[in-house]
Amino acid sequence: MRDYSRQVLSGEGDNDYARYMRTDALLSLQRRPEEMVHRDELLFQIVHQSTELWLKLACSEIREATARIQDGELDGATTLLARASLAMELVTSQLEMMRHLSPWDFQTIRTVLGHGSGADSPGWLSVRRDTRTLGRTFAALVEERGIDLDGMYRAERKDEIYRLAEALIEWDERVSLWRVRHYKVAARVIGHQVTGTQGTPVETLTKLIAHRFFPELWQIRTHLTETGPMADPYTDSVQGGSL
């Protein structure tokens, strides 16, 4: 009979789970109790460290989706984008833990953060870089195939490019919702009219909320509304220069 109690993997750890998951290393990445200036440093670090892990996964999916688009595997790319969007949703939801961080207690934690800022997050920098590459790849696909995006959205039959476009919108929206939640958390903890650890005003975050990675896909929605069955003829004529 096979002995499942025996470790078969090499590496550190008392069992194969610990060796494969590298739990010894993972659980040693937080400051030890004797190093902490406040016990909620554990909460603060785990929220941010787990964010980096989820963003690492999300960006891995984004890069693979980009490669799938280049290879013409559009449905495969759509599936991967859905996984990236779910990862971003999880990143956003775990910010709820920060609601349990007292604004005054955070001032103690802030004394040991140095100039550390979310702007330097490797995960966030990857999101920006990889999403821009994804956008360029999608634009090249549209141009190469001579796709009329407006007509595609009006068509009754929704094809693989439509599904891909909607997956891009979903990703863009999830990133935006994360930005909104991050701003709200920051304002809740340290206030609105203050500066962050790198001297950047918290209110600057509000300017990022309106950013769109795929503006052409968002603009289509505006155009469809302006030209749809419920469009205002007077407004349309004014915008068209008829009056």
From TrEMBL:
Coiled-coil stretches: none
Top-level division of the source organism's lineage: Bacteria
Pfam families assigned to the protein according to its UniProt record, in alphabetical order: Trp_dioxygenase
Protein name: Tryptophan 2,3-dioxygenase
Organism of derivation: Nocardia amamiensis
Taxonomic path: Bacteria, Bacillati, Actinomycetota, Actinomycetes, Mycobacteriales
